[in-house]
Structure prediction request, 77 residues.
Amino acid sequence: MKWFDDLDKVVRIILFIPIWGWIFSAIYRIVTYVNNKNNVVTLVMGILCIIPIIGFVLSIVDLVTTITDDKVKVLAD
Prediction:
């Protein structure tokens, strides 16, 4: 998702705050799969992120990786 990766780091951190971040985690993974179509695990994790508990945990992981490495890395290839 080029448009998301081009956003300012602070905006991406705000989008991954766990209260609503699970939605963005799901959207990010699903759109990444649609754009690349190379990793079905990315699509499955995107669909699972729609479930709030799983999405909540992954949004925390996405938040941490965005803060530390400036990119979403876990199961979002």
Notes: The chain has a mean pLDDT of 84. The chain has five helices and no strands. The longest helix spans residues 18-36. The helical segments are 2-5, 9-15, 18-36, 40-48, 52-69.
